[in-house]
Amino acid sequence: MAKGTILIADDDSAIRTVLNQALARAGYLPRATGNAATLWRWVSQGEGDVVITDVVMPDENAFDLIPRMKKLRPDLPIIVMSAQNTLMTALTAADKGAYEYLPKPFDLSELVAVVARALAEPGRHAQRGSNSNETEADELPLIGRSPAMQEIYRILARLTQTDLTVMIAGESGTGKELVARVLHDHGRRRSGPFVAINMAAIPRELIESELFGHEKGAFTGAQTRTQGRFEQAEGGTLFLDEIGDMPLEAQTRLLRVLQEGEYTTVGGRTPIRTNVRIIAATHRELKSQINQGLFREDLFYRLNVVPLRIPPLRERLDDIGDLVRHFLRLASRQGLGSKTVESAAIERMKRHSWPGNVRELENLVRRLAALHPRDTITAAIVDSDLIASPSLAERVNGDDSKNLSEMIEHHLSQHFGSFGRDLPPNGLYGRVIRQVELPLIRAALAATRGNQIKAAELLGLNRNTLRSRIRELDITVLKIPLP
User: Fold this and answer.
1) Do 68 and 101 meet the contact criterion of CB atoms below 8 Å apart?
2) Cα dist. 329→189, 358, 370, 441 in Å?
3) E-strand spans in 298-448?
4) CB–CB of 77/119 below 8 Å?
5) Residue 24: enclosing H or E segment and its boundaries?
6) pLDDT tens, position by position, for the chain (483 residues)?
7) Nearest one of 375, 318, 352 to 364, comparing CA atoms
8) 294 CB-side CA count, 13 A
9) C-alpha angle 396/400/403, rounded to 5°?
10) Strand (E) positions, 147-223?
11) Eight-class DSSP state of 336
């Protein structure tokens, strides 16, 4: 006896055949069509336990059909698949009430597993209504079709349906605030304010006042009552950027807010109830800071309800072409010059290590658009610009180890100040080694596309040693198939 009837709609006969075979082997009864009209007739007649549909079909777009299907049969799970693998496709699918979004090409075993989950929990996603923000493709906050970004899109589409606290981790320049904006602009609190505060940019002694506000006379210079960011964000989203730089005393007050749902202003006595969604972000390894006594473990678990890691650009090199063309269009609109880019120039960019990530790439594109008179950006133009800032791999492979050592020494002196006058906490050696080891192993894994055996050879380590260090450093290994 079949586990359930699965309705398939896709104008590609090859995809219909493959899905028919895979679902039949898994014990389901598939029915396939190449148009939306037949799918609607089946659904309106009460047929099918799960729907799998492409977005673009000859007679109707699935995003126009899904609301009608959900209105008629609210508990019918609808799985959307699409070759238009953008953030807005994932968000629109979620907003229309789809159970899941799968970008093409997809793994058949994953699709079968999604079907099984959909049958086990019908009605999980109720329709939200079609009031999502319409966004042109050129204005998307996040760009990229790589597997790493597709997974980010799917997670974001799910999270916009909730008010869960999210912890965004990622290197500087990866777009952590853009991700936070997506969660707000396409979430339940879109009509409320989005308020951002960067902990690293606020003097330590003022952070509590910035967050919670203060009363008149609370401290020298407090001449009037001032709202804090929590009050400003009421009913909306509060984005706590660089949360790892928050002082311990402010961490204690923030923990109480998360536990009790209320706070007091600096100098105030009356508790104030708060209704905000918290999204935090950091470029630091917070587990390492917990071990050093610099970050509260209980606060970490309050903030880390849903961890979301944004991949660095070196882990999504296939997105560079789309990103460059996007930034060139923006530069043209801003009057910086209208340019195109040749494929060889894109390939040259892929060989750069991008320590500044997407922000560094955007700065490069804007610079080239503004300063170079040619209409086409060539590989030679890119090379001449990047040669002034060679990648880490280029520095290590060259005879420049002395300069690299000097860079590290300069960073340490800047980070820790004058030794003897303001000593950092004990255990400095282990912390520094960890901070060097972590990006080194990540870079090796990125260069070998997640192949740990090749990464071990590149680093000159025993493969078991590398696996042990990956576990101890809590490094996520993203396996990317070789082209």
Assistant:
1) no
2) 30, 16, 13, 35
3) 306-309, 340-341, 376-377
4) yes
5) helix 13-25
6) 668 999 999 999 999 999 999 999 999 999 999 999 999 999 999 999 999 999 999 999 999 999 999 999 999 999 999 888 788 888 889 888 899 999 888 888 889 999 998 998 765 554 444 444 444 444 456 888 888 898 899 899 889 889 999 999 999 899 999 999 999 999 999 999 999 999 988 888 888 888 998 888 777 777 788 888 999 999 999 999 999 999 998 999 999 999 999 998 888 888 999 999 999 999 988 988 898 899 999 999 999 999 999 999 999 999 999 999 999 998 888 888 889 999 999 999 998 888 889 999 999 999 898 888 888 999 989 988 886 554 444 444 444 444 556 556 655 655 554 444 455 566 667 777 777 888 788 888 877 777 888 888 888 888 888 888 888 887 877 655 444
7) 352
8) 16
9) 110
10) 166-169, 194-198
11) S
Strand ranges for 165-243 from DSSP E: 166-169, 194-198, 237-241
- Rounded-to-integer distance, Cα 309 and Cα 144, Å: 15
Please state, in angstroms and rounded to a whole number, the distance separating the CA atoms of residues 206 and 355.
31
Determine the Cα–Cα distance for residues 80 and 82; give it in Å rounded to an integer. 7
Rounded to whole angstroms, the Cα distance separating 134 from 138 reads 12
Place of tokens 């007739």: 41
Tokens, residue 19:
């899905």
Please give the torsion angle defined by the CA atoms of residues 383, 386, 388 and 389, in that order, rounded to the nearest 10 degrees. -150
* Beta bridge pairs of residue 78: 51
Distance CA 57, CA 66 (A): 13
Q: How many CA atoms lie within 13 A of 70 on its CB side?
A: 25
On the question of a cis peptide bond just before residue 122, with omega within 30 degrees of 0, the verdict is no
Across-strand partners of 54? 81
Q: What is the token pair recorded at 254?
A: 């923030």
**Going by C-beta distance under 8 Å and a sequence separation of 6 or more, which residues neighbour residue 427?**
292
